[in-house]
Amino acid sequence: MNITGKNNPYSDIGKLSHINRCIQCGTCSGSCPLSDKMDHAPRELFALIREGSYEEVLASITPWFCVSCYACMVRCPKEIPVTDLMYAFKEKAREQGTVPKNLNMTDMYDAFSKTVKQFGRVTESFLMGRYGMRHPISAVKNAPLAVKMALRHRLELKPQKIENPDTITRLYELTEKGGE
Fold it and tell me: In the prediction, which pLDDT does 6 show?
């Protein structure tokens, strides 16, 4: 199957050719802690791309539930960079304007990305603050937990930056361009 055809919106993703190695074993799905929330298992997305069902993949909620735990990549017998591809699929959905509208995970992803780009690492208070701006009811519900975490010194209120957060920004730019 030619996955790099001109009608394939994913053809510019650097690691896309790795999906040709997928043997549809389901190890990625069995390893994923959120696979029950997905509309398609990762292997199903790979099969859909190989058969040319790009619109279905672009509309899928699956990439948005990837929490980058890397369990799928560690266990994949064909060493497919599933997590990296899920990240690229999220970026492609944004680029194509097909991000699911009724899914809070996209806002969490945005808040996470902005926090890491700004500080070079995750600062939970900023992450949840950004997310809470988009979902105030959720923020209010999580406030008691935030107070408990703060009282136990488990919630950083002041962001800590890495020495040079611009290096993280450059890494994001590389991945957004489909670099390997």
Answer: 64
